[in-house]
Each structure stands twice: as structure tokens, then as C-alpha cells.
Amino acid sequence: MAKKYLENADMATAISRVDGRAKVMGAAKYSAEVQLPELTYGVLVESTIGQGVITKLDTKKAEWAPGVIAVVSYLNTPGVPEYKLENQDVIQPQLRVFDDANIYFNGQPIAVVIADTFERAQYAASLVRVTYAKEKHLSNLEENLSRAVVPKSALKNPKAFTSDFVRGKANAYLDAEVQLTEDYIQPSEVHHPMELHSIIAKWDGPDKLTLVDKTQGSQQTAARIAKSFALPVENVKVLATYVGGAFGSALRVWPHEIVAILAAKKVQRPVKLVLHRNQMSYMVGYRPHTLQKVSLGASRDGKLVGITHESYGKTSMYEEFTENVLQMTRMMYDVPNIDTKYRIVPLNVSTPAPMRGPGEATGSFALECAMDELSYKLNMDPIALRLANYAEVDPDTKLPWSSNFLKDGYKLGAEKIGWDKRKAEPGTVQDGEWKVGYGMATGTFGAFRSAATVKATLKPDGSLLLQSAVADIGPGTATAMTKIAADSLGLPVDKIAFQLGNSSFPKAPMQGGSNTLATVGSATVAVCENLKVDLAKRAAKQKPGWTNAVPAKVIFKGNDLVNTDDTSSKINFAALLQHDGLSELVIEGSAAQGDEKTKYAFYSYSVHFIEAHVHELTGVVRIKNAVSVVDCGTVVSPKTARSQLMGGIVGGIGMALMEEAVIDDRTGRTVNASFGDYHVPVNADIPQMQMLFVNEADPHLNPMGSKGLGEVVIIGVAPAVVNAIYNATGKRIRTLPVTPDKLI
Ligand code: MOS
After folding, report:
1. Which entry of 190, 339, 352, 410 is 20 to 30 Å from 97 by CA?
2. Taking 70 as the threshold, does the pLDDT of residue 677 lie above it?
């Protein structure tokens, strides 16, 4: 049988990023680069205490500074209508921007200075003087575990993912022959996309608003803003043509966006507000600091008997943030007894946000490190332990997997990393001054699809324009959609343009939760089919060979449209449109989820292998080799998929070895809020990587056979690194990041 899986070399000839040239040539304009007539610039003033009340806000000096147009704060805000709604239950919990003098975290926006240039606004912002009645703040998760609460979603719904869960018997690990209980701690991590968050807000009269915004959902941002400002949704237009990374940080409306809209209202001119790099650490979410307690129980031969898993993550004082940390524990392995508990700890910090592999990246760190620890206790190979507990059906729902090629992933990854070189006894392989070890771990993330529509405009010259409201935060959405359309229609790739990131384009979900390809890809397939059906109907009026044409057999060839069942019927499609008096053909196609979720359990999988070298004297860790195999169904656009996987591995290595947003508990302020102090991997930290895809179709989720990719690629990377370090050194580090001080 022909090899189906894809490795690095197989991807070199695949379709290239269709917007790559515009991006590297600077032609792609991101929201902060957009210029408008009469544009003004907003700079935020932030609180410098963690909890309390502003007793005096003196903006006089700032107002008198050169170029300043206004200073807006709780003293003179035009107001957010949503905050005044009577039925407070229906209002989204959120930081109420400039609504009163209360302070909930250090760094909270308390005023905005609007000036004719960015520099003048920045200078004037430094002139605002604030006096506070300071109260005691709480910012440390581990010291405040006693304040943990059950999330509201769990109180409302016992079936919510945040609710306490038991399958079989609770604490069943206590009955097992081999037991293990450990705490795993992961610090807060910041998304830090290359592009800063930014927005331009422009009012046209009292009830029309245009936003040029960094967002993962143009229509979702429009809808939320419309609610906040009591506007009809069609009066709010959101443009997010290019987004330079987000990783979850742009899945919602943040306070700085509300500030820009209030400021633009106040000065009656468009306002541009760009966060600075430091503000990216605490104004647009982060992966929350989380402590997890995992207990595993197994029989001597490695069969899991029970898992108990608790998670404590932090949230803000004004809003509950929850994420699905425990799902992988409930479905990954065939275990009769599982109990999980999820709690959050409200602190004087800003609200966290989903960050790449939300929930599962955190959960897999604890679960997959614990599985590794168990493998040593059992004296069993870590892969063998996982295979011994492989779940043939979803243990959570008892539904069959829609597709599951995990076993292929283990096999392929082990082969590529050279797993046979691994020694079962830790600390026994030496390479000069370096200790050498191998580690592996698994990741999984649910595969989803929702509803979307794509609009197609076909011109007589054979050029095709496709449009969808979906945002593209970098994975290459337009590239994958172009490939899908090119394959379906037979049109050359350079004849197809895919436009996105505009709330007035047809309906699409946010780009989040790895659902874009499954969702918008299905709508792209649908619009191409509709186009072919429509063209075949038109052709049938002229040539009999078209009467029974099926869409699968209709294809563009050069300037012609061909019915491959009857090639004599080929017809020039410019003439075809002309015959019907059309200067262009406009058609829509829609797709939505069916009842597939009631029949199958949908997940993507990743298996990560790491070879780590640890320096004996300094504790420096060098990743020498990284091999990841992903089962995400059919790979539509191999080159951009490979980039996604590469980014996931790099992000996971950062999570394992470097990333930690540090709050000084004396002030409640993030102290390493810059790229100088918040460490992420650079090229020199990144080893040889092998990106592999199983590339087997999932027959149940969508016509492409694809599942999701963007999240699953990071899930499991950090534990694979930690496990490799243990194999190298015999030192088990359970608090991320694994910095050299923890290893010497
Ligand atoms: Mo993803 S964390 O839903 O951007």
C-alpha cells in the first residue's frame, strides 16, 4: 500500500501561502497600520494598585499638554449603555470600563488620553495624577487555594465540564496495587502574538460604528459591541483583514476596545489605540496559573484502575474564566474509575483567556507527566503503558471514535526519533558533559464544526472570488480554502481569491477551537458544488450532454467547462455566462453540523517525542530532536499545516522550559511584561524538528475528511519535554518552566 503519511520532505511542493507575498512585502496592512483622515491616537492610563478605589483623578496637566484633544475616564465617560440595563442577569460579566472608581487589578485601564499624535498622547498620559484609597490585594494562586470556588456554570448545570465528575468509583486509585499522587504546577503564560492588539474606532453619526480591529471573529466582535452600545448589529462593521497571530487572545472583546469606542465617541473623530508590548501581558488574557493534583492507580501489569484529577486555576475578581482542563483525563485512556474536580480562585488579576490548546495543554501536562511517572514505577515502557490502556471507544460517551490513528502515531514517532536508543534507567546516557534522555507524551483536542456560508463570484475570465467573515490569525485559512476550491473546480490556484475578516461577508464562526477548516471548508465545498450545479443547468440549455451532469464530474479546463461523463459537451464558460446575459455569477453555499456528534466521538490526536540533553554543571537543557505525529484527518494544505505543527512544538518547548508571567505579589503587578524578560524560544533554542501527519481521512466530520489542527499541535509537547529531562537526569520537575536552577 502506498505511504499515506506526510513528513517534512513531502510538504515542500505543496501549495504556498496565498497571502505570503503580501505579508513579506509589507502590502498586508494590519489594523495598527491603517490610516484614516482625522485619525487621533489613544494611550491608556493604568492603575498602579491591585485593589481599592480612586479618590482623585487629576487630568488637568494632561489636558493642557500639546496636541491633547481629551482625557476620558469614569469622570466624563459617554457611558456604555449595556452597563445600565435593568436585567443584570443577562449582561455579560466583564470589566466595566470607566464605569466607576473601583480598581480590581494592577494595570487596569482607568483613563485614556487622546491626542493628535501617538507620541503626544503617550507623553500626556504620563501627566495624569491618581490618588487611591488602597486595599489589600490578593495575587498569589498557591497561597489562596482556600478561596477556591465552584464556577457558576457548574452550579447551574451538573453536566457542565466544570462540574464535579465521577465515572465508576471516586478515589479508586487507592485500591490499586501501584499508586501515585503528585501536584503539577504551571505558571501563567502570555500569548504574545507578534502583532500587538490594536483597534481603530470610528463613529458615523450617533449609531453607526466601524472598527478596524485585531479579532478572531469579525461578526462575533460586531455582535458583542452592538450589544454593549445598544446598536443594531448591522450598524457595526468590523474589519480584521489581517491578524498577526492571536492564539486565543483575540477571541473576545477586551477593555481597550471599549475604551477606543468611548474615546471616539467623546472626540467625534476616529481613534487608534495600540497596546504596547508590556500591556499584552495583562490586558488581553493569558493562560492561567494552575495547580493540578493527579492520582493514578494501576495493576502491576500496567492496567489503569482509577484516575483522580483536580484542577485549581486563577481568575479575576470581576469575571469567571474556566477552561476544559480535565477532558483528556476523561476520554484518553480506558479506565473504569475516574473522578475530576475543577475549581477557580478569584484574585486581583485581569481575566485569563483561552490560549492555544486551551485547557488541554494544561491538563495534558499533569496527566502525561503522571503517566510517565507511573511507567517508571511499573518498570514499563511509556508507550507500552499507553497502548495497554488504549481506549477502543470513547470511555466518556461510549461512542465509537470518528477516527483514531493514535497507535500509528506512537509507532511512527518512535521510529523517527529512534526510541530504541532510550534507556529505561534514567541518568544513564552520557554525551560528554551532557546527560541524554528521551521522552514522549500524547495530546488530544475535540474536533468540531459549526455553521458557515461562503459567497462565490465567478467572472467570465475564470477568476473566482470567495468571501467569508472568518478571520485568519495566521494558520493560512485563505490558502486552505483556495486549495479546496481549486481541487473541487479544477481552476488554477492563482485564479482564486479568498477574502475574509470582514463582518459584512457571509456568516462564519470565530477562528478558535480549531474549527475553521471543518466549518468554512465545508461551506467552500458547498459553494463550489452549487456553482457547478448552476453552471451545468445553464449549459444544459445549450448542449444536451449536460442534462444529467453530476457536480463531481463538472470541471473547469482552460477556458472551458467540461462534463467528464460526456467530454464532447465542453463549453466555453465566458460564452456560457454571456448567453444568459451575466457579467458575473454570484452564488452562496452553506454548511452546518449534522447529527454526527450523537453517533461518534470526534478528536484530533498528537504524539510528541523529544530528545533532551541536560548539562550536568549548569542545568541548561538543549532539545536535540523533536518529532511530532498528528492525526488531524486529511491534510488539505500540507505546507501551512506543517507550519502550524512547527509553531505548536515551539510553543510547547517554550511552555516547558521558559515561559512564566511573574507577578510581584507585593504590588500585584506583572514584572516580566516585556520580550526582554518574558522568555520564549528563539531559533537557537529550536532543534531539528520532524513534523509528521498520519493523513488518514476522518469519514464523519466533513467532506474534506479533516479534523482540527491548530490546538492539538501544542498539547502534550511540554510533558514530552519534562519526561525527556527525567529520562536524562532522574530529576522529576513538576513545576513549569523547567529552568536550569531546578536541575542543579
Ligand atoms: Mo484557540 S485558544 O481557540 O485561538
Report:
1. 190
2. yes
Quick one: pLDDT at residue 13? 85
Q: Which residue lies with its CA nearest to atom 4 of ligand 1?
A: 248
Q: Which atom of ligand 1 is nearest to the CA of 355?
A: 2
Q: 237 C-alpha vs ligand 1 centroid, how far in Å? A: 23
b (16+ CB within 10 A) / e for 440-475: bbbbbbbbbbbebbbbbbbbbebebbbbbbbbbbbb
**Ligand 1 atom nearest 357 alpha carbon:** 2
pLDDT digits (tens, 9 = 90+) for 348-377: 999 999 999 999 999 999 999 999 999 999
What pLDDT, on the 0 to 100 scale, is given for residue 87?
73
Q: Closest ligand 1 atom to the C-alpha of 710?
A: 1
Rounded CA separation 408/307 (Å): 25
Nearest CA, atom 3, ligand 1: 512
- H-state helical runs in 460-515: 477-489
Residue tagged 530532536 (cell numbers)? 625
User: How close is the Cα of 49 to the center of ligand 1, in Å?
Assistant: 30
- Interatomic CA distance for residues 146 and 144, integer angstroms: 5
Query: Which three cell numbers, joined as nine digits, stand for 638?
Result: 500540507
Using CA atoms, how far apart are residues 635 and 620, in angstroms rounded to an integer? 36
Tens of pLDDT, residues 428-473: 999 999 999 999 999 999 999 999 999 999 999 999 999 999 999 9
Closest by alpha carbon to 716, among 440, 492, 531, 402?
A: 440
Place of cell 518512535: 414
| Cβ atoms 445, 712 nearer than 8 A | yes
* Rg of the chain in Å (alpha carbons): 27
The residue whose CB lies within 8 Å of the most ligand 1 atoms, and thus the one to mutate among 197, 252, 356, 715, is: 356
Residue 486: CB atoms within 10 Å: 19
Q: Which residue has the cell 485581569?
A: 350
Give the pocket of ligand 1 (CB within 6 Å).
216, 247-248, 251, 354-356, 358, 512-513, 711
Query: Alpha-carbon distance 118 to 213, whole Å?
Result: 17
Q: How many Å apart are CA 524 and CA 590, to the nearest integer?
A: 8
247-299 confidence digits (pLDDT tens)? 999 999 999 999 999 999 999 999 999 999 999 999 999 999 999 999 999 99
CA of 167 to the centre of ligand 1 (A): 29
* Residue 574 parent element (H or E): helix 573-579
C-alpha cell at 454: 461562503
* Ligand 1 atom nearest to 512, measured from its CA: 3
Residue of 191, 251, 448, 519 to mutate, ligand 1, most atoms within 8 A of C-beta: 251
Q: How far is the CA of 579 from the centre of ligand 1 (A)?
A: 47
How far is the centre of ligand 1, averaged over its atoms, from the C-alpha of 285 (Å)? 12
pLDDT above 60 (res 1): no
- Positions annotated as catalytic residues are 711
At 334 the three-state DSSP class reads coil
Separation of alpha carbons 171 and 306, rounded Å: 7
- Rounded CA-CA distance 501/483 in Å is 19
Q: Report in angstroms the alpha-carbon separations of 641 from 283, 379, 468, 630, 664.
A: 30, 37, 20, 10, 39
pLDDT score at 89: 64
Q: Which of 734, 702, 715, 543 is nearest to 634 (CA)?
A: 702
